[in-house]
Q: What sequence folds into this?
């Protein structure tokens, strides 16, 4: 399929002699030139060997990007140099090798450790090494964002004034206003792409602003030092401790120190277990199972202090949604140099952070999934908070799980890794059962605070129940507010009505492009596809049979908001979901208002369920605990348990006791019954045997193969062919399920079929998937995806 490349060199990582391990320059041999192993960001499962002439041989090193001729047409492509040697791998004829065209980076972007980690990823997740490398190095670093000529947008003072006077804003569309505000807030030059990303808009509103003369664009060269300040969430009224890009500062190796509270006995016990690992030089994985509010974060901070005191750096992974000002402030209070990597960073900011981390100016890197690739110099510790979160899994190539990559990185760099959760993933729990992770427990809350009382509201018994709130929940909200408390209501569904159905033919209104029911968004007066974001106007009649009188049903957060506003007049209600939180900063604004007591009731999707710590929340209502329970996903029960347990943890965190009410139609379900009792181990005792019986993780390993294409029959035929080839080549220990249509057959007009492989160990699956699909390539128009340890089942 990919013949005609430079020539395949080593493709078996186990046998390669790790020639790149030292990043030192290799001297050209007497005859002239060197041989470089190159990988590219394409699905080419090989290291290609190129010759490197004398001129380039002087500068080429592993970890640099190069330009090479690729394929039969010798089209120039960018690749990563992963090895440099004096002689070509055995069996390759030096005379037939192609030449490296140029070396692109003056210095290596990637060190030996990162090369090894990405090679492991390629092998484990069945992608190419080049693809793994490309995901590890941010685009802003690859293109040296901020150090070149670019087109930047400027806001003239008149526009800023008009915006402050509020005379301008009413004349702009919401998107235009968001784009303009983003530009005004920035402390350095932004490109059009930066604004699109931050204001989550297309280029259209930005171009419109320019046409209106409200902004200008200029071409200029900016260096990293004058580029934008990191746009992370501000710490309120605190000294600015952001990493700045002044001259390189040698780390003083001291945490701010002494600012932590005296540890509780439970925290002390956990620290005692961690201390030898933190002082040592070995790989040591720990799983901290600590109930919400048990003080896990405080343990992370103490552990990081130990690492920093030794002159080491720490990486802290948290779910993107937990990168709140509250979280960030806790780290900035304790450490001088904290870099926060979140998804709203511009390329320039990301590049700057990357550089300061690589130069050793940062003590603690806090970030979401991709922060696991931070180029620390002397890594001392990795922390993964909320390790059970499925957002640690990347859903595009390479489909890696940041927790598992973190454990691998810790192993390669011989450092401790600390995973923490109130509701550990069953995979992690079993790893602890098998002795692979050391389990540490924190069963009680700090300062003897009780776990909140959780009570069930059995919706089957509630009368006169039309909206989201039962009579019992309504009464409880009323009481909590009367007593001066604040209330959180969780409903994990966006929109007003969650479906539109035709009473005549029984069909639901679906997206034109997806096999998915559309959601009614009343405020925007349209139906929205939550899979592809397509919109359509509310149809006057059934699109399939033409009957009038479509029925709108189901309840989403938008409808719940209206119900709550009507039920509690005079109370301030805010909704937090991805519809109301589009603008950057809006999340922080609402949380700040809630914290200040200006908001009485906060309602929303799981966005509000995670990591928040508000002492005055005395009631949490789960409006419908069953939303995730009946999805076609073997983790449905686990997810439901996690969600209810996590949201229950949002209350009773202060002096006042907290209460949780859970509305459900299935109170007897193990996930709900055990979440109500804060009984993780009880849930595990029911769930694990089920997983074993049905041959599911954590006992069995799964790989999922998905093909998609515009023609259903073509995709189906291909998957049958691939399925047979895989079955034929598989060891007897591998079991197959499918191929079958995916639960969502069509997304964005592409038909999807999938196949599940399972085995008690992962290796046979990976070996099979590295070998067979390359021999049975998909026909034109069909794309193939391989997902090892999948979390998505749709
Ligand atoms: P978790 O991360 O397990 O939810 P946190 O570390 O956020 O728990 O701790 C819960 C609350 O208790 C926080 O407000 C935190 O500041 C406080 N806390 C944690 N450890 C201590 C301690 N040793 N002494 C006093 N307060 C503490
Ligand atoms: Zn759609």
A:
């Amino acid at each position: 399929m990919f013949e005609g490349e430079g020539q395949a060199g080593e493709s078996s990582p186990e046998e390669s002699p790790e020639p790149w391990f030292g990043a030192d320059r290799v001297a050209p041999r007497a005859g002239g030139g060197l041989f470089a192993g190159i990988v590219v960001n394409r699905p080419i499962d090989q290291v290609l060997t190129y010759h490197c002439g004398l001129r380039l041989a002087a500068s080429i090193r592993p970890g640099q990007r190069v330009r090479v001729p690729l394929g039969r047409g010798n089209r120039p492509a960018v690749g990563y140099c992963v090895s440099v040697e004096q002689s070509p791998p055995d069996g390759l004829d030096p005379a037939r090798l192609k030449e490296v065209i140029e070396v692109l980076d003056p210095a290596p972007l990637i060190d030996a450790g990162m090369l090894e980690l990405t090679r492991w990823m390629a092998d484990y997740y069945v992608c190419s090494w080049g693809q793994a490398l490309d995901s590890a190095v941010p685009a802003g670093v690859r293109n040296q964002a901020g150090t070149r000529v670019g087109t930047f947008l400027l806001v003239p003072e008149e526009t800023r004034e008009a915006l402050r006077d509020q005379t301008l804003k009413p004349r702009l569309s919401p998107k235009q206003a968001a784009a303009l505000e983003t530009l005004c807030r920035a402390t350095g030059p932004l490109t059009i792409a930066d604004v699109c990303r931050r204001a989550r808009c297309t280029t259209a509103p930005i171009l419109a602003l320019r046409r209106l003369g409200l902004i200008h664009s200029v071409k200029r060269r900016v260096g990293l030092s004058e580029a934008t300040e990191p746009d992370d969430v501000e710490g309120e009224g605190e000294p600015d401790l952001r990493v700045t890009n002044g001259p390189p500062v040698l780390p003083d190796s001291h945490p701010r120190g002494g600012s932590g509270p005296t540890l509780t006995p439970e925290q002390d016990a956990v620290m005692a277990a961690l201390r030898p690992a933190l002082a040592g030089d070995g790989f040591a994985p720990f799983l901290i199972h600590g109930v919400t509010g048990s003080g896990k974060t405080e343990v992370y901070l103490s552990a990081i202090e130990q690492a920093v005191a030794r002159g080491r750096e720490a990486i802290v992974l948290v779910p993107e949604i937990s990168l709140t000002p509250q979280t960030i402030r806790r780290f900035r209070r304790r450490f001088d140099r904290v870099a926060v990597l979140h998804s709203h960073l511009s390329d320039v900011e990301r590049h700057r952070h990357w550089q300061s981390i690589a130069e050793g100016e940062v003590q603690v890197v806090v970030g979401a999934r991709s922060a696991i690739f931070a180029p620390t110099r002397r890594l001392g510790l990795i922390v993964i908070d909320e390790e059970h979160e499925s957002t640690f899994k990347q859903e595009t190539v390479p489909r890696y799980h940041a927790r598992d990559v973190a454990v691998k990185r810790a192993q390669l760099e011989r450092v401790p890794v600390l995973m923490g959760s109130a509701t550990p993933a069953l995979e992690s729990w079993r790893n602890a059962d098998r002795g692979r992770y050391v389990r540490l427990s924190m069963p009680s809350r700090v300062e003897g605070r009780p776990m909140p009382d959780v009570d069930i509201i059995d919706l089957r018994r509630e009368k006169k129940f039309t909206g989201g709130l039962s009579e019992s929940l309504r009464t409880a909200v009323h009481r909590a507010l009367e007593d001066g408390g604040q209330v959180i209501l969780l409903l994990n569904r966006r929109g007003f009505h969650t479906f539109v159905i035709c009473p005549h033919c029984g069909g639901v209104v679906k997206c034109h492009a997806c096999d998915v029911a559309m959601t009614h968004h009343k405020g925007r007066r349209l139906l929205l596809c939550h899979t592809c974001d397509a919109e359509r106007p509310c149809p006057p009649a059934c699109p399939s049979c033409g009957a009038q009188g479509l029925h709108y049903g189901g309840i989403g957060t938008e409808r719940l908001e209206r119900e709550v506003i009507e039920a509690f007049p005079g109370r301030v209600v805010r909704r937090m979901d991805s519809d109301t939180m589009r603008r950057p900063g809006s999340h922080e604004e609402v949380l700040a208002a809630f914290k200040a007591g200006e908001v009485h009731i906060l309602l929303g999707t799981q966005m509000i369920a995670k990591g928040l710590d508000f002492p005055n929340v005395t009631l949490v209502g789960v409006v419908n605990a069953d939303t995730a329970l009946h999805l076609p996903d073997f983790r449905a029960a686990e997810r439901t348990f996690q969600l209810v347990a996590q949201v229950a943890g949002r209350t009773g965190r202060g002096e006042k006791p907290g209460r949780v009410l859970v509305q459900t139609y299935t109170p007897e379900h193990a996930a709900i019954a055990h979440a109500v009792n804060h009984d993780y181990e009880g849930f595990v005792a029911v769930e694990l045997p089920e997983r074993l019986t049905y041959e599911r993780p954590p006992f069995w390993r799964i790989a999922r193969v998905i093909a998609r294409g515009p023609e259903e029959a073509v995709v189906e035929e291909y998957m049958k062919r691939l399925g047979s080839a895989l079955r034929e080549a598989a060891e007897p220990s591998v079991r197959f399920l499918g191929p079958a249509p995916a639960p969502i057959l069509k997304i964005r007009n592409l038909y999807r079929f999938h196949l599940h492989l399972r085995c008690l160990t992962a290796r046979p699956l990976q070996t099979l998937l590295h070998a067979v699909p390359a021999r049975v390539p998909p026909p034109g128009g069909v794309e193939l995806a391989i997902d090892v340890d999948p979390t998505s089942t749709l």
